[in-house]
Amino acid sequence: MRIVDCHVHLTSEASAAKVVKALDANGVARILAISEQERVSIRQTREKLLRAKKLFDAVPDRISGLAWIDPTLPGAAELAAEALESLGFTGIKIIPDHWYASEERLEPFWERMNSLHARILFHTGILYGNDDSSRFCKPVYLEKLLHYPHIRFAMAHISWPWCEECLAVMGRMRAAAGYNSEASQSYVDLTPGTPKHIRKQAVANAIDFCGVERVMFGSDSVLPGPLAGQKETLEKDMQLLDSLGLNAAQKERVLSGTAEELFPVKC
Questions:
Q1: I need a labelling partner for 78 at 20 to 30 A (CA). Which of 94, 159, 161, 212 fits?
Q2: For residue 230, how many other CB atoms are within 10 A of its CB?
């Protein structure tokens, strides 16, 4: 069964050979590697994108890049466009960091992303970092993106603790698309965050409400390193999907198909 991990963080430069070795050991075919976070400097953001590019250029069939961009930095839209059009990134990674996605000042950025048909992975839910930024990461603020229908986006961590709000946004975007499943903009990233006592119900609710075509596996693991967290998360989620009675095709859709639809390999 093909496995694609949609949520792997880079914290410094990583060896492509070591990453591939870890992926092979875990039975993972491909990852989406998120470039290192940068909150202050657009120049340093670009430097970090180039480090990530070096990694995924080495093994483009196994590693794809998500460019971590802060939309409030001057020049962010231009850098995001460069990442998608020239640097080979398949999508953008965004954390609402003391700003709301619905703010008027961000409309030019969303308009540019709309023109690029950008694919975006948003952090949603509680945030164990970036100071006291969790309140900005409620999924409801992403309703703003219905005005930019060419953007496709995923809400990470099932937005825990706002899992039901995440599903409400999924329903809102589905309605905005006229209940046309192909036109709907939003997806759910099942990457953990949800604690053990609600994990099964949260995943079951997401699959039931959204369908397997709209949810995808992620581990939130970190590179460089042996990706032990990826292996542990994959094993737990495989057991969970089995317990929910998914058939082989449904499991493969969650474990790889949805991520490959939203974030395809860049040729």
A1: 159
A2: 28
